[in-house]
Design a protein that fits this description.
The complex is a heterodimer.
Chain A (H helix, E strand, L loop, with lengths): L2 H5 L5 H5 L1 E5 L9 H10 L9 E5 L8 E5 L8 H5 L5 E3 L5 E3 L9 H5 L35 H7 L11 H5 L5 E5 H15 L8 H7 L2
Antiparallel strand pairs in A: 1-6, 2-3, 4-5
Chain B lengths: L1 H21 L14 H5 L44 H35 L9 E3 L3 H25 L7 H29 L8 H7 L22 H26 L4 H32 L11 E3 H7 L1 H9 L3 H4 E2 L6
Helix pairs in contact in B: 3-8, 4-5, 5-7, 7-8, 9-10
Classes of the chains: A alpha+beta, B mainly alpha.
């Protein structure tokens, strides 16, 4: 599916279907609800954090900001570009997924990722890295939908059930938004107008991930 | 009663306040492996134009620095941490450059040597009298380093072309072998370095060797003019330094990558160095195998039983031959029976 279908002109079916994450740093209260929910929903092992709440400028008065980040499901995903075994695939709706059975755990996707999303469990006896693990937008993986195998490797498939990712669903201040690009943009615009800040500033995470 | 309670709390709080004042400066040292810090590290220095991370820049506040550890928040980054754009650079190189260069090397280098072999033919030297030029220790250390080294090179290439090989178990096995063989090379490589470092120091006559390409552009089945070379010629010396010192750099950068020992920007730099040095190592390994197995008939014997024919020694290692002759060592190295094929 070409880039133009997502980015140009008015709302089309395709552009509505492209999913995006957005974290409103003016609303995030550092409660860690999203990452705990993610860990719980997907039964993630110790040491694996698909979503993290990070605090920047820690200890600098008035400049401290918290922000929830995970895989942003970039439209031009750098991880997929550098993977030596080509284990990534990008769904028509923009969700970036990978095949853990193909992944060799080399770590290159982590070096390419602007968001530090790829996680590596220490899996085998030699303490070497297992297959990479990252946020799936709660969309499971290449295994059969809702199969035991899919849950074991990738966690829940809430998208197949018509639900939003669990992190955004439970966010108490609705700082974290997940959904179609059009809908998320509309909410950001509405918030900016309501706050009286006029046109919303485009966050770097957003432009880095989605190229707008 | 309530007033007393307020007074009590007032004193209690002031005690905490005083205690804070008396204390040493707040200790921010912490476990960097706990959730958070290490992962914030990973969002730094991505774009060519972003001074810090994709997340810090523009999204929250513009900072000159980018350190995010509580103890030095906002301070300018230094050293490798401050190198901008390594994330974007790594992505570009790994996406477009590394694999095609490896492919070009493993196709073009053997093709060039095949052409060389067809035009200039394999060189032949008479094997009348032979001399034992390498000891059993030399030969043992050479092969104990060489076997894991070749395994490392092949498994490395399997990973580079992992997508063509389908990934999964096979390529994962190659990755594990890549690491395990490194342990063997890390033991015998340094022994090989110590064994041959003196003979591999550059000499003035190495320049002459390089200018005439070691006589390998001589037509016909033999070379008659003595080539300026010691025990090792300039080409062998180049290979020596690449596979030992280069090899040690590969071990170092590889260990950083394998154990993810450093910050994200150092990991990116390590991956870039590891691949670029890989080009030189693969190209020179192919050269080394061609020279020892195909370019000169029987040259491999020097690394099998340690012997070399007199003519080959006198022509291809003329300075070494002269040096042995003048030192009176040559006769002792003479092997009783002439070597047969």
């Amino acid at each position: 599916m070409s880039e133009a279908q997502f980015s140009s002109g008015g709302p089309t079916f395709q552009s509505q279907a492209r999913i995006k994450f957005y974290c409103d740093e003016d609303r995030c209260i550092d409660c860690h609800g999203c990452d705990v929910a993610c860990k719980e929903a997907h039964h993630l092992p110790v040491g694996i954090n698909r979503r993290r709440v990070i605090t920047l400028n820690d200890g600098i008065q008035g400049k401290e900001k918290s922000l929830s980040i995970a895989c942003m499901h970039c439209s031009d995903a750098p991880c997929a570009k550098v993977c030596p075994v080509d284990c990534f695939y990008i769904r028509a709706d923009g969700i970036v997924l990978h095949d853990k059975k193909t992944c060799i755990g080399c770590g290159y996707c982590l070096y390419a990722c602007p968001f530090g999303a790829p996680q590596f469990p220490k899996s085998d006896v030699f303490g070497s890295r297992g297959a990479m693990d990252k946020c799936t937008f709660c969309a499971g993986g290449p295994e059969e939908t809702h199969s035991e195998e899919e849950f074991k490797l990738y966690g829940q498939n809430r998208i197949a059930e018509g639900k939003v990712p669990v992190c955004a669903a439970m966010c108490s201040t609705k700082a974290l938004l997940a959904g179609s690009g059009e809908e998320v943009s509309a909410i950001i615009r509405h918030r900016a107008i309501t706050r009286g800040s006029g046109t919303p500033k485009i966050p770097y995470t957003w432009s880095k991930a989605y190229g707008e | 009663m309530r007033t007393y309670l307020y007074v009590f709390f007032f004193f209690l709080l002031s005690t905490f306040g005083l205690a804070q004042n008396i204390k040493e400066p707040v200790d921010f040292s912490q476990n960097t492996h706990i959730y958070g810090v290490k992962q914030i590290e990973q969002i730094k220095n991505w774009g060519i134009n972003s001074p810090t991370s994709g997340v810090v820049s523009g999204n929250v506040m513009e900072m000159q620095g980018g350190s995010i550890n509580p103890s030095m928040s906002g301070k300018p980054l230094e050293g490798i941490e401050s190198l901008r754009g390594l994330g974007e650079l790594f992505t570009l190189l790994q996406n477009k450059v590394f694999a095609p260069i490896f492919l070009a090397i493993i196709i073009l280098v053997p093709l060039a040597f095949l052409t060389h072999l067809m035009i200039f033919k394999s060189k032949r030297f008479s094997h009348g009298i032979s001399y034992k030029v390498f000891s059993t220790y030399n030969i043992a250390i050479h092969w104990l380093s060489a076997v894991p080294f070749v395994v490392i090179c092949i498994t490395g290439l399997i990973m580079v072309f992992g997508d063509k090989l389908g990934g999964g178990t096979f390529v994962r096995l190659a990755r594990d072998l890549h690491g395990i063989s490194t342990i063997a090379f890390a033991i015998f490589g340094p022994l090989m370095f110590l064994m041959w470092v003196k003979a591999s120091l550059p000499k003035i006559y190495d320049l002459k060797w390089l200018l005439m390409l070691g006589g390998y552009l001589t037509k016909g089945r033999t070379i008659s003019t003595p080539i300026p070379s010691g025990q090792f010629n300039a080409g062998m010396k180049m290979w020596f330094w690449t596979c030992t010192v280069g090899g040690f750099i590969m071990i170092f950068t590889g260990a950083i990558l394998y154990f993810q020992l450093s910050s994200i920007n150092a990991l990116r730099l390590s991956a870039i160095i590891h691949n670029c040095l890989g080009f030189a190592i693969i190209a020179l390994l192919i050269t080394h195998i061609y020279m020892s197995v195909f370019a000169i008939e029987g040259a491999l014997n020097a690394m099998v039983d340690g012997t070399m024919g007199e003519e080959e020694l006198a022509i291809l290692h003329s300075y070494y031959y002269k040096e042995l002759q003048e030192g009176g060592k040559l006769e002792k190295m003479r092997v009783g029976k002439p070597h047969h094929h």
